[in-house]
Amino acid sequence: MPFIDLPPQLQERVICSISAAVKYEVPANIVLAVAEKEGGKPGQWVKNTNGTHDVGPMQFNTLYLGDLAKYGITANDVAAAGCYSFDLAAWRLRQHIRKDKGDLWTRAANYHSRTPQFNVVYRADLMRRAVKWADWLDARFVTRDVTKPGAIPSTPAAVQAVAPTAPVVSKPAPAAVPQAAPAGPWSTASYVPRKLIINGQ
């Protein structure tokens, strides 16, 4: 059970973050890092100095929620318990990563603010948290380095620790199946984005 080492109050955050990352094809450790950084709780409303509020587990600003009202999304929707706010956050991160300018981290930090002075502070902390979550994921799940087409999936450290001593022979990937390079700015010197392998894909 990969979540046994987490306190019960964090299990929903982690499960929902991973599920949303897989659904919207965003590196799972980035979603986990944003969720940890935002640190919201279901039902939480935090008043900002500019009169707006940050709402729910992923701390959506009411100004941003005003833009989402045309889709029928309300503050109560993102304040509620469950995975909806994490899905919406992963969707939003995907938009920033694919459409915004700058490196991966600047784009991901746009979740918080596009204003450079606020973005740079959020970005630095987001990178630190994402590295921690990458290590956590690598220890528990099969992941793949999305910067290398055709990369061999990793073996979780927990599995390696209990693996038999006999050598394990793995088949190489068929040469006839080309692997497409990921779209977007995925490279950075201090971090390798990871994709979870679900059902062998």
Automatic annotation (TrEMBL):
Where does the Transglycosylase SLT domain lie?
A: 16-112
Q: Does the keyword Transmembrane helix apply?
A: no
The residues the entry assigns to the signal sequence are: none
Keywords of the record: Plasmid
SUPFAM superfamilies, A to Z? Lysozyme-like
Q: What is this protein called?
A: TrbN mating pair formation protein, muramidase/lysozyme
Species of origin reads uncultured bacterium pAKD4
